[in-house]
Amino acid sequence: MGVLDGKTSVVTGGGVGMGEAVARRFAAEGAKVAILDTPPDAANAVAAAIKSSGGEAFVEACDVSRPGQVASAVEAVARRCGHIDALVNCAGMLDKADFLDIEPDNWTRVVGVELTGAFLVTQAVARDMAGHGGGAIVCIASICAHMAEARYASYNAAKAGVLLLVKSAAIDLAKHGIRVNSVSPGYVDSPGEDIATPELADYLRHRFARVPLRRLVRPEEVAAACLFLCSDEASAITGSDLLVDCGTLADSYVPETFPADLTGLEARADV
Helix, strand or coil for residue 69? Predict the structure, then answer.
């Protein structure tokens, strides 16, 4: 018996990376999974894989930054499944640029997907949940919601906004029996992500000195955190953020950035 048997879950950005891991895990736990993504090709492949494994999944093409598409997609899911029990907002995008070089259109697009998209889908799904006894919502935030990473100002700002969106929604939606939380992943080993060399990939996966557990987070570990927050085991948890970062934010170690020839310090790979 799965944790989500008989329930309907919506996963945005479910065609790749963390979203794919969430869709697969939720389906494995008995949920009927609706994947909202665009373009839908990758999402269709994930849905097909879930169905070939005995699960239930389907795709609604949707750009989460567009209110009309969100309303239509969520309405279609509710019409097909009766009601929605869980939502995980995984859709996201990046724009890497020095602050002085950020293009306004790129800023708008990142914030539109990462923050406005999370709002639009959360609101649309919560309206359905409010009429059917409640549910659970998880938004994917980031360690970049807690600390800034250079050259990612739009992403940092949007993810920080997600944290307060979650708290605000949790307060207002509690009376409807809807819990809203976030998960803040650290550096994630996402399939298909462009890591410059095999040597760098090996280092990040096994000897990552900046991270206390010395490795990248696996997408499946993010999915497990989302499953917990959507399950009855988290029935008293709302308005909270769960860090899944291998200890990254716990480590404020500064000397690792000092030049070795000035300090005599060794890299911490042997710690």
Answer: helix
Catalytic residue annotation = 155
Q: How far apart are CA 110 and CA 226, in angstroms?
A: 23
Please, what are the domains in the chain? Answer: 8-193+217-254 (3.40.50.720)
Distances (CA, A) of 45 to 35, 41, 61, 154: 11, 6, 13, 30
Instruction: Round to whole Å and give the CA distance between 107 and 113.
Output: 10
Contacts of 166 (CB under 8 A, 6+ apart): 139, 141, 180, 181, 182, 239, 241
The yes-or-no verdict on residue 257 having pLDDT over 80 is no
Convert the pLDDT of each residue in 40-77 to its tens digit. 999 999 999 999 999 999 999 999 999 999 999 999 99
3-state SS class at 256: helix
The answer to whether 265 and 255 are in contact (CB under 8 A) is yes
